[in-house]
């Protein structure tokens, strides 16, 4: 009887372990010349804080895992983090093979999260994951930021008001013809700041501002940390990828 009980207990533990494994969400975060210092790390940390189910790897030419069709097939979500000011240069640094792998990944059902530079790179002139070309929100009517200096800006986020770190990010366009389009957040002037789209069988969520920015970003920019959002905004975006 004792051996039977041990076998049953072992089977239960094995089943529980398999169930936990089934609930894991595997996320690839790009790291390389198309991102900026600390941007990939900040995205990884924010995702890991969103729940124990998230397992995050860095991917890129200089990492142990490169961006190919075979490697992307292991992941539920791909994240393109923030970068510098040279959008075309960032795109060229990816190279044609990685660009094709990313487009095919999304077309066949992958989830793409683009943050600031990652949003710019998703536009029609680059990765072509959305039908629009993107431009900076800086200088738009009613937007309080007039330079590329870092700032904390007000946004209307999923029905609530909050502040978020902003670093020359784009404004987005509504795309009512896109069956998966959903407005997630708007800047205070009403321009679209964060949105969800579909592309083929995949989902694309783009954010002009930086929901992943930690306290060190605010401190380094001499912005009071009291202006940080209290909520985990990255967790909200990960849910929007469903």
From TrEMBL:
Superkingdom field: Bacteria
Keywords for this protein: Signal
Signal peptide: 1-19
Database matches in InterPro entries: Biotin-prot_ligase_N, Class_I_gatase-like, UCP016642
Keyword Disulfide bond: no
Ranges for domain Biotin-protein ligase N-terminal: 26-123
Name of the protein in its database record: Biotin-protein ligase N-terminal domain-containing protein
């Amino acid at each position: 009887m004792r051996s039977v009980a041990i076998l049953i207990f072992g089977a239960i533990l094995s089943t529980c372990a398999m169930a936990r494994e089934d609930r894991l969400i595997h996320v690839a975060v790009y790291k390389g010349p198309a991102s900026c210092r600390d941007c990939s790390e900040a995205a990884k940390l924010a995702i890991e804080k969103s729940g124990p189910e998230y397992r995050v790897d860095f991917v890129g030419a200089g990492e142990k895992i490169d961006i190919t069709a075979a490697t992307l097939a292991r992941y539920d979500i791909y994240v393109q983090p923030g970068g510098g000011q040279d959008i075309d240069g960032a795109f060229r640094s990816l190279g044609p093979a990685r660009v094709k792998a990313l487009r095919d990944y999304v077309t066949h059902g992958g989830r793409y999260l683009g943050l600031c530079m990652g949003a710019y790179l998703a536009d029609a002139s680059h990765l072509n994951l959305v039908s629009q070309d993107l431009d900076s929100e800086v200088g738009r009517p009613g937007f309080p930021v007039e330079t590329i200096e870092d700032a904390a800006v007000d946004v209307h986020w999923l029905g609530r008001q909050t502040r978020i770190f902003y670093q020359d990010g784009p404004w987005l366009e509504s795309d009512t013809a896109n069956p998966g389009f959903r407005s997630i957040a708007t800047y205070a002037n009403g321009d679209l700041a964060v949105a969800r789209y579909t592309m083929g069988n995949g989902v694309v969520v783009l954010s002009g501002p930086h929901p992943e920015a930690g306290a060190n970003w605010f401190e380094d920019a001499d912005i009071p940390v009291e202006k940080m959002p209290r909520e985990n905004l990255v967790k909200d975006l990960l849910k929007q990828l469903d």
